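Exercise: predict the structure of this protein bound to NAP.
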Amino acid sequence: MTGRLNSTSDSSAGGAHKDGAKNCNVALIGFGTVGSSVAKILCERANTHLRLTHVLNRNVARKKVDWLPSSVQWTENIDDVLSSDVDVVVEVMGGLQPTEDWIRRALAAGKSVVTANKQLIARCGPELTGLARRMNQQIQFGASVAGGVPVISGLHEGLAGDELFKIQGILNGTCNYILSQIEANGVPFATALREAQKLGFAEADPTEDIDGLDARAKLAILARVGLHCNVRPESIVARSISAIDSVDFEYANQLGCTIRQISWAELRGDELFAAVQPALVELSSPLSRVEGSRNLVMATGTYGGETVFGGHGAGGHPTAVAVVSDILAIARSRQTGTSYAGQPPEKNPTVTSDYTAKHYLRFLVKDRPGIIASLSTILAHCGINIDAVVQKPGCPKSHLPFLITLEECKASLVEQALQQIDKLDFLVHPCLHLPII
Ligand SMILES: NC(=O)c1ccc[n+]([C@@H]2O[C@H](COP(=O)([O-])OP(=O)(O)OC[C@H]3O[C@@H](n4cnc5c(N)ncnc54)[C@H](OP(=O)(O)O)[C@@H]3O)[C@@H](O)[C@H]2O)c1
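Solution:
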């Protein structure tokens, strides 16, 4: 492949594009899945003012490709980037250190930063944004949530005129792929996970995805951008999808629902409800129709109602599109001299995961008379009303799955009842408790 980047920019190194606008010099930190896709887009899309000047990676010799212009400097040394005339440093190497340190040094050296690093932005986004402002630079992180879906810019700019109070989304493609596979093929969780790993949708160690830690970092970022709430990711409850079985999809379907990993942040007065958990979602909801590794975010505002953003939540090219869009936004604001618009003041709400909803309780029991009576006694004692009891016919008595749905009540009340229920000797596994939203 021939790099067309040369044709628009090599002759005008550090100077002006042919239409008179100033070139914007870009350094890539990390030449992996996303970094190489960013380079490809910069290389193939002519007529932008963006000019790739540096690529940094450890052991860089093995990373070199012949399709980038010879003017690009390949390096392992961050000082080569920081001491150069680079305008925008693009961090796509991931991790917390030395990444945070390098981003701080880039901002302090008068360079703007684009990053796809959700864990870093979830933890230190406000401080890095503050540093960028003090240095009269920018830090953009559009690719850190939902990959190629322009949800950060959509919340930050497109919906800035509304007063958003709720964000719900499917933010982890790995979990969505696994749940979709269990639903479509009736396979156990472990089989769906293995398949996802084979196809590259899940990491060798999938804990971050399966246990909701990846999604809660993204939810913390969305809560900050959309709801203007300072939330630490650790303060958001995250529950695993690993207990979901194909029988749960059968029961969910009987209730007119499916099951998805839902990230949910809702502002109610001084409280922010925030959680990442598997939940039953009505089949009429856009959330129920998200298949495979796609992402979807629904934002609800006081004035504009519900807005839905959807698309490819990961992958080199979709994520690189978000990165390049951020670089272009910075380049544009450098041309016009505008940067941050005024921001509403940040709120510091109390974070809770104690939602009020209908509930789905799935039991796996050794069958014997009196099971429903024991369960309903405990639930009644806790002030919880049963809505329905559903049992699939033809299951073995030694592993009998059945379902109890509960009328609307607080999750903490159900958890209190489950502490007693989980001690009952007829249970084969602890009860699976999901909200119905
Ligand atoms: N991939 C996606 O779909 C996606 C989607 C959204 C956001 N992101 C985010 O984008 C970032 C990059 O993801 P990726 O999938 O492109 O990762 P990747 O394929 O592992 O690429 C990371 C690159 O950075 C290099 N690197 C790592 N640590 C380094 C260090 N200390 N010094 C120098 N180079 C270093 C790696 O070199 P080696 O070759 O030696 O490992 C690799 O080339 C991450 O923050 C990720 O969370 C990714």
